[in-house]
């Protein structure tokens, strides 16, 4: 079949020539590009080779590796006066025994490779990806901040290079690592590394480490022991199993996991090793101020890396005061020995300068070399429960609660209930705290509650401030260990673990006007030639960030807490006037004791020095019935007296924003005339004490010779005034049970039955001086010949300049000894108010009577259950010939509040001489009843 074929167009000679020219140009360009690329590559490679040659020319020869291994310059640590505390000695003083690879436990080899360099046997001495990452971050940060070193590189920097941290050094390190890998086989490199690496506590090399920590040869190490040792070289002091056993154990777990991931061991073997108990050999070298020195070495490792301790020849000048350190060690040792019969074996002490953060003394245990008490464990750094020593910060949180109006912030004069209470505690069961002595003090001020260390008010304070606010405050004070998600209200009593050093630093911030400076231990570091590398107070501090003071709380709030903690009279009811918390100078102090007597503390300060003391047992076993004031207190007292010998006694200087107020001693308010004892205390100017109307001490009008309240119907010659400390209704029963006499709630003297046609104008309930809240029924009489209407009004204060519009009425029907109306006080401010009953006659003449009361709708702050709401069904006002007595009133809150003057006796009585209404308030009946007034 014939098929149609597409017709191909014929090319012209011109088109063919153009196509050929285009192809020629492409190939010419491509060829030139290839040549250029090859030239660039050659130049780059040549440049790298030249750079390599230039840099390598100045590098030590890899052949020197074995000769230079073990050579280093000691780092020396001094106290602030230049006395030598410790030196990272050469191998003749430290411990080092070189062993061949075959004499090292295979567990050590596997654990080391899995932890430090999992690809050790496969790379050419460097890990290119890790190296590029390290160089990138070095250019970004201006310093080498990322890792990436292989085992070979670590060997190079420990043996052949200086410990500087620069990009150039990192490149040199990589070049030498590649050269060493070319000249030595992998087993030789690993053998050199394991004999060179520092394991802490003067143990250089794996065999020395095995002997130091476990008293055996490297060949005999178990999997559990090998995993622990393999985790130390990164930060030997930080993971030191003597001083930080928990950190060392956690690090061991990481190494075991890495070994499982690398395929060296099974998960079951890892679990068995994790569960294997480890027993450490006692340390056999002497240190001056051992726990402080080891703490400084740990910080040096974090700043410079562990190799700097024995390569760079640094001279480290610390903040330690040798006299105070010696006294601290002596006092802790002697006082702990005196408590041996109370099962006390250990103690710790931290002393700091508040204005600089300098640690001038640090004792981590009663005896560093005593294995029986775990003396190597630094109890100044070990998190322990502080007990009541954190209560100042709980109350501090209530002084400045976020998103709360000023009037809701607590003050030293705020009343809080020291009465057994079941507190709702989130997801936890209700929390019912008890006081240390098992007693209750009733309604007390914050000053008394903190000074006498009452537990129940502290829990109420934390409930008021809320846990998130308190935890944020503690974080700003430098506390790093309160990280659990399940804390409850028991945290107010010190249920969270805090290191003594951090707690002492938090108190230092209080002494420093609320300004926190993190602990400083290093003043200056010089190299072997004396060149200053860093110095505190300069642009290159040795501990970056510690000089940046942070204003954690206002100077006003810090001073108020200090004023309470230094108030010897306030703490006297529990601690006595001459307790160990009292010095020969102004001093603020607080004790702490934990449940079962496992820990006790005393922390306190003067303007010059803050000292924290812990007493207990490192194994967490309980002491025998010994509190913070009896255990840690004597150590604190003796050390503070010795430390301040010859120094001036300085007062705590009040900052701007505080002033002294006269208050009623036990209620914290401005004193009423009924207050039996007055004090002068410091308050914030913008948070003064409550007015005298809120004083619990009140003069109450009583029927003479009885326990009955007087009212309008009590004859004047039968009235007498008595002084009561009147508790709110929710605590009235507690007060009565504890022998605090309370006045009756309502009067029982009934009004006389009126004669027909007689004018009656009075309020019988609430009574004069009563306390009211919520919805209040008003009882009394409003009746007269020619009656037109009556209404109820109120005015603010007991001498109001004006009254409200009628809140009840006007009503056109008279009431005789019945319910006049309802007063809803829920929207009113708390404080004194005046009720006015206004009656109008048909001729337009107005008459009035008044009753002065106190409105108090404040919900109780000391109990988590809401105040009961009383529902009242008001009867319709009617004319009732048979009048009910005021005792039929359903409202139960006629508790009178205080006044600064005796209750007046000129309250109008129900006679035929009522008081006409006037523009100016008055309580005296002025017009005389006449027929003309009735029209």
Automatic annotation (TrEMBL):
<dbReference type="GO" id="GO:0006508">
    <property type="term" value="P:proteolysis"/>
</dbReference>
<keyword id="KW-0808">Transferase</keyword>
<dbReference type="GO" id="GO:0071555">
    <property type="term" value="P:cell wall organization"/>
</dbReference>
<dbReference type="InterPro" id="IPR036950">
    <property type="entry name" value="PBP_transglycosylase"/>
</dbReference>
<feature type="compositionally biased region" description="Pro residues">
    <location>
        <begin position="874"/>
        <end position="913"/>
    </location>
</feature>
<feature type="domain" description="Penicillin-binding protein transpeptidase">
    <location>
        <begin position="347"/>
        <end position="608"/>
    </location>
</feature>
<comment type="similarity">
    <text>In the N-terminal section; belongs to the glycosyltransferase 51 family.</text>
</comment>
<dbReference type="Pfam" id="PF00912">
    <property type="entry name" value="Transgly"/>
</dbReference>
<dbReference type="GO" id="GO:0009252">
    <property type="term" value="P:peptidoglycan biosynthetic process"/>
</dbReference>
<dbReference type="InterPro" id="IPR001264">
    <property type="entry name" value="Glyco_trans_51"/>
</dbReference>
<feature type="compositionally biased region" description="Low complexity">
    <location>
        <begin position="914"/>
        <end position="935"/>
    </location>
</feature>
<keyword id="KW-0812">Transmembrane</keyword>
<keyword id="KW-0961">Cell wall biogenesis/degradation</keyword>
<dbReference type="InterPro" id="IPR050396">
    <property type="entry name" value="Glycosyltr_51/Transpeptidase"/>
</dbReference>
<dbReference type="GO" id="GO:0009002">
    <property type="term" value="F:serine-type D-Ala-D-Ala carboxypeptidase activity"/>
</dbReference>
<dbReference type="InterPro" id="IPR012338">
    <property type="entry name" value="Beta-lactam/transpept-like"/>
</dbReference>
<keyword id="KW-0573">Peptidoglycan synthesis</keyword>
<feature type="transmembrane region" description="Helical">
    <location>
        <begin position="30"/>
        <end position="55"/>
    </location>
</feature>
<keyword id="KW-1003">Cell membrane</keyword>
<keyword id="KW-0511">Multifunctional enzyme</keyword>
<protein>
    <submittedName>
        <fullName>Putative penicillin-binding protein</fullName>
    </submittedName>
</protein>
<keyword id="KW-0645">Protease</keyword>
<keyword id="KW-1133">Transmembrane helix</keyword>
<keyword id="KW-0133">Cell shape</keyword>
<dbReference type="InterPro" id="IPR011815">
    <property type="entry name" value="PBP_1c"/>
</dbReference>
<dbReference type="InterPro" id="IPR023346">
    <property type="entry name" value="Lysozyme-like_dom_sf"/>
</dbReference>
<comment type="similarity">
    <text>In the C-terminal section; belongs to the transpeptidase family.</text>
</comment>
<feature type="region of interest" description="Disordered">
    <location>
        <begin position="856"/>
        <end position="935"/>
    </location>
</feature>
<keyword id="KW-0378">Hydrolase</keyword>
<feature type="domain" description="Glycosyl transferase family 51">
    <location>
        <begin position="85"/>
        <end position="259"/>
    </location>
</feature>
<keyword id="KW-0472">Membrane</keyword>
<dbReference type="GO" id="GO:0005886">
    <property type="term" value="C:plasma membrane"/>
</dbReference>
<dbReference type="InterPro" id="IPR001460">
    <property type="entry name" value="PCN-bd_Tpept"/>
</dbReference>
<dbReference type="Pfam" id="PF00905">
    <property type="entry name" value="Transpeptidase"/>
</dbReference>
<dbReference type="GO" id="GO:0008658">
    <property type="term" value="F:penicillin binding"/>
</dbReference>
<keyword id="KW-0328">Glycosyltransferase</keyword>
<dbReference type="GO" id="GO:0008360">
    <property type="term" value="P:regulation of cell shape"/>
</dbReference>
<dbReference type="GO" id="GO:0030288">
    <property type="term" value="C:outer membrane-bounded periplasmic space"/>
</dbReference>
<keyword id="KW-0121">Carboxypeptidase</keyword>
<dbReference type="GO" id="GO:0008955">
    <property type="term" value="F:peptidoglycan glycosyltransferase activity"/>
</dbReference>
